[in-house]
Amino acid sequence: MYGKVYDWHTLEGPFVVHRGGRYHLFYSGGSWQEPTYGVAHAVADRPDGPWVETAREPLLRSVPGVVGPGHNSVVTTPDGLDVMVYHAWDVEQTARRMCLDPIRWTPDGPVVDGPSTGPTTLER
User: Fold this and answer.
1) What's the rounded Cα separation, in Å, for the pair 9 and 124?
2) Exposed (0-12), middle (13-18) or buried (19+): which is 30, by Cβ within 10 Å?
3) pLDDT of residue 36
4) pLDDT digits (tens, 9 = 90+) for 108-118
5) 102/45 Cα distance (integer angstroms)
6) Cα–Cα distance for residue pair 29/36, rounded to 1 Å
7) CB within 8 A of 64, min separation 6: which ones?
8) What would the 3-class secondary structure string for the chain be?
9) Per-residue pLDDT tens for 5-42?
10) CA dist 19 → 16, 45, 94, 106, 117 (Å)
C-alpha cells in the first residue's frame, strides 16, 4: 500500500476492527460499475500500521445479481457472530440495498461467503 500504484482507481469506505490481537482493515476499491469492485482486507499489529494486504483477491466483489458491493462495516450479533454489513446496487441499478454476510475468522484472515444474492442466516 505504501508508495505503490494499484489497479483500483478508488479506495474508500475503510473500517477497522480489532480481532485476535491484530487490527483488520476492510475497504472498498475500484469502480462500482466494474466486476473488479469489491471489499478487500489488510492487517496490522498497530492501528497506525504498517498495513499488509492479506490477499490480492477481494473478500467481496460484484457477481450476477449484486452490483458494486462495498462501503462495509462489521457488526457483532448478541451471539458473538461478526457480520459484514455493506451496500450493493440492485440489478436495475435504481437503488442500493443493505446486505449482510457472516464473517468466518480463519488463521489466514477473514472469509466472507458472499455477496449473498438472497436472504442470509445469521447464526453461529
Assistant:
1) 36
2) buried
3) 78
4) 889 998 888 77
5) 24
6) 8
7) 117
8) CCCCCCCCCCEEEEEEEEECCEEEEEEEECCCCCCCCEEEEEEECCCCCCCEECCCCCCEECECCEEEEEEEEEEECCCCCEEEEEEEECCCCCCEEEEEEEEEEECCEEEECCCCCCCCCCCC
9) 555 556 788 999 999 999 999 999 877 777 778 899 99
10) 10, 10, 36, 11, 27
pLDDT of residue 9: 58
- Exposure of 43 in the CB half-sphere (CA atoms within 13 A): 13
Q: What is the pTM of this model?
A: 0.84
Amino acid at 109: G
Query: What does the radius of gyration of the chain's CA atoms come to, in whole angstroms?
Result: 14
Average pLDDT over residues 72-98: 91
Place of cell 451496500: 87
Count the residues in the chain: 124
